[in-house]
Specification:
270 residues, 42% helix, 15% strand, TIM Barrel, Metal_Hydrolase, 8 strands, TatD-like, metal-binding
């Protein structure tokens, strides 16, 4: 089955991973800007990174028949440095019209601090100004519920935000309902250790019915599995879920959400 991975960090993967993903059925992916494994010290470091996301990775992906899209921001893990964050946000418009850019992300919170919230709100202003979609990072482990509520409140308090154009990622059992109930899209991140296993993800799919729900592998610098979405497909089939529902979660829903961006030019497959 063809599928789209809506959140995968290919800058941390080898070209062998591209080949494997293509063989497993991945036809398109989106790569949010994120932490590089270390804190960057200058706006020029981010400028080079954005060149990688908008030029190098699309070319790498195309060699394997995969279409690559991206999102731009300074990640919440580096948002404690408000001065640098503002320099990066001011620089993002240099790249906003690149043909594979879908929006602003992944923005959000890491430790739920005041500085992180400040930078999050300034990213929101950028997205509103340039009419961009938003991809949200929610915190990990013990900070997740509080941080998710803080993020949803900040988004909901601004009437200019179109909730149908916001994807809130890394949802788990205790956050998915509120994300969906408030009208946002929800993303389940499939990890071998933290966040969400394929088995837990299928539980959530069965509970919600799959509306406005996406699944991704993240595939970042830590313990992760870039083929986690095929693992989810296998688990859904093992439980007897319909092929229509499986396709909805791994293909149709990403197509519907990303198609709201003028730069999403991927052709729907029959």
């Amino acid at each position: 089955m063809d599928y789209i991975d809506p959140h995968i960090h290919m800058v941390s993967r080898t070209t062998d991973d591209y080949a494997t993903l293509a063989r497993m059925g991945c036809v398109a992916m989106s790569e949010p800007a994120f932490w590089a494994g270390y804190d960057r010290g200058s706006v020029d470091g981010f400028r080079d990174y954005f060149h990688q996301l908008t030029d190098t990775e699309p070319k790498r992906a195309a060699q394997y028949g995969i279409q690559h899209f991206t999102w731009l921001c300074i990640n919440a893990k580096e948002a404690e440095n408000v001065s640098l964050s503002r320099d990066v946000i001011a620089m993002i418009p240099e790249f906003i019209d690149k043909p594979n850019v879908l929006g602003i992300g992944e923005i959000g919170l890491n430790k739920n601090t005041k500085n992180e919230a400040t930078v999050f709100l300034e990213h929101m202003e950028l997205a509103i100004k340039f009419q961009q979609q938003i991809l949200i990072h929610t915190p990990h482990l013990e900070d997740k519920y509080q941080g998710t509520r803080m993020i949803l409140d900040m988004l909901s308090d601004d009437s200019r935000i179109d909730r149908s154009r916001v994807l809130v990622d890394h949802v788990e059992e205790h956050t998915i309902t509120e994300v969906l109930d408030r009208g946002f899209w929800a993303g389940m991140t499939l990890y071998p250790i933290t966040k969400c296993t394929p088995e837990r993800a299928v539980d959530m799919i069965e509970k919600t019915g799959g509306e406005r729900l996406l699944a991704n592998s993240a595939g970042d610098w830590g313990p992760s599995k870039p083929t986690a979405v095929p693992d989810l497909i296998f688990e859904m089939r093992r439980r007897g879920l319909s092929e229509t529902l499986i396709r909805k979660v791994v293909y149709d829903n990403p197509m519907e959400f990303f198609s709201q961006s003028k730069n999403f030019t991927f052709t729907l497959r029959s």
